[in-house]
Amino acid sequence: MRLPFRKMGIFSFRRNKDKKKDAIGVPWGPSYPNGENGLDAKSRAPLFPPTRFSARLIAELPSNVLERIFVAVCPQSQDESYETCEQSALEDGCMLCDLRDLAHCVQVCKQWRAAARKVLYHSIRIDPVHYCAREAYLAELRKRRTKFDRNGEPEDTPSARLKLLCRTLRDDPTRLGARVRYFKTPYMLREAAQADLARTIAVLPNLLYVDLPEGLFSDDSAYATLRLEVEARCPKLLKMTYRGGAERSLAKLSQGTIWRHLEVLELIKINMDPNVLRHVLAALPNLRAVKVTDSRAFNDDVFVYNEMLPPFPALEQLVLTKTPNVTAAGLVDYLSYPETRAALTVLALNKTGIEIPTLHEVVSLATSLKSLIVQCRVDGPFKSGPQTQRLSSRSLETLRYEISSDPQASPYSGITQTYYTYLASSILANGLTNLRAVYVLDAEFADQLSGLPPPPPRASFAQHGRPSSSGSGLSKSPHGNFLAPNITGANGGLQPPMRPFAPSGAPASNRFSSNNPFAGTGSLTHTLEVFAKKDEAMNWSFVKVSPTAQLGPAPSRYSMVPGALQSERPISSYGLGADMLVNGWNTAGARRSVMVGNGIGGFTALPQDAPPPMPSGLQAGGDLWPRPVSSAGEKRGDRDMWR
């Protein structure tokens, strides 16, 4: 029997609604734009289709092999860093899609369930959005539309995910909550959802790291309940931060009742007696890294030996930022112990009381130092004295040497050039034998290492050169604006001054051939990667400086001597081969070039390495062993800045 209401169009709104839904598309349908190219992941033929033998082989895999496969599906599940959710995000894929694929693996069979759950709940992170095309579709579905509000209000997705996670963990705290070791949440979520965060942490007894709101680190009364929950339920935390105002909570660590397993301690604007601080650090036997920022109370008394106080612990990493009362004498006392010299591998000195002329005292004692970071502003040239020596270290591999002039100094003074000349002399004198990478704020630093002089003072393009007036009475050189290296002064009686830090008996170089007072101290003995830029706001420019092919004096590339090769620096492709993963370093968009001397004042052009032949079935530019592609589509090359 036909319904007469169909002719009247009463149920036509239902058919129109279904047509609109089909037009939008569903995430599993062919019309859903699942990838960057608009194609669905299920519509693409697999590169290696499954067979009966492969299915039988997968069923026989042991649990440890399955875990490694699941880690490749969701790499962030093994994130064991002590960085926040924003700093530890992956840049080459959608983390939520990878997490969804791993959750689907849990539902395949009982054998996969045990191995996948172990990986799924090891390191948990809550991301606010999908970093793929799926987010645009899901954002429309999350909007709560009504009859009078067609636009709808977006849902607080991170808060909803935290509530669902809290419910799952509290339903099975013995088997699931005990597996969680790292828990990371976005900034806005951990600042607003304190109650849900406390309920979730309450069932995580083996937690090693968790993102907490900033108010908890400064003893804010609004976060007192959350602090008590963390102290009672998470006794195995490995990192904790204390800000200004939390001195009383920091002093409680000396009692040895809370967080005895801390490995990383960060102090920001802490104003505490150095004697009390030494008792606090002595109560942490597993401490291996300390970061102190913006503290005037942190001075040399923390390192000086005292029979009545425990010694400063032997650390692997020591980061000092804006601590003007820490001098080289304090670090020398700290490095006087053999266990301290053997443990310290990373030392960062950012705007401290340690001056560059006394830096060699610290570097020479740190026999196990691998990375050194020095950042400071100077208002005068390098002050050398009878006790000043070159930098010398057999273990140093990476040096970040950023010396900038004071804003009040004249831009034409060139006071920073003397500090980079001191560093170049230390490298050329074979004092840093194991150094492989150096970061400087001097665009001409690579020329100093190659033995090439900067532009002469009279050159119109010389750096920091004073602009000459039209009425200047300077005599013109027969070679134009260039000065030949063998031309002496007008009086003929000027002798080049003795070079500081030069070995006794060494001949002094001609002062007119180079502005480098340490020229002639030697040459490079190994390949060195130089990352240089002229301003802190610019990107790093990468140059690989290799030892010269022939030793001996070479004519200047700026001279007009006949036969001199006037070749410029070869420029290759842009980008870095291996980024230097150091906190706070801008490694994006660096210019990469290679400098190899040819012995006659120029450079040898090097051919670019051809990419290896790709196997059949792989596209050019792809990985030889690519990780599994998520069903959300291909990886994105970049991410939104406002994530």
UniProtKB/TrEMBL annotation:
InterPro entries: F-box_dom, LRR_dom_sf. SUPFAM superfamilies: RNI-like. Residues 464-480 have a biased composition (Low complexity). Residues 633-643 have a biased composition (Basic and acidic residues). Residues 452-512, 607-643 are annotated as: Disordered. It comes from Verticillium longisporum. Residues 58-125 form the F-box domain. This is F-box domain-containing protein.
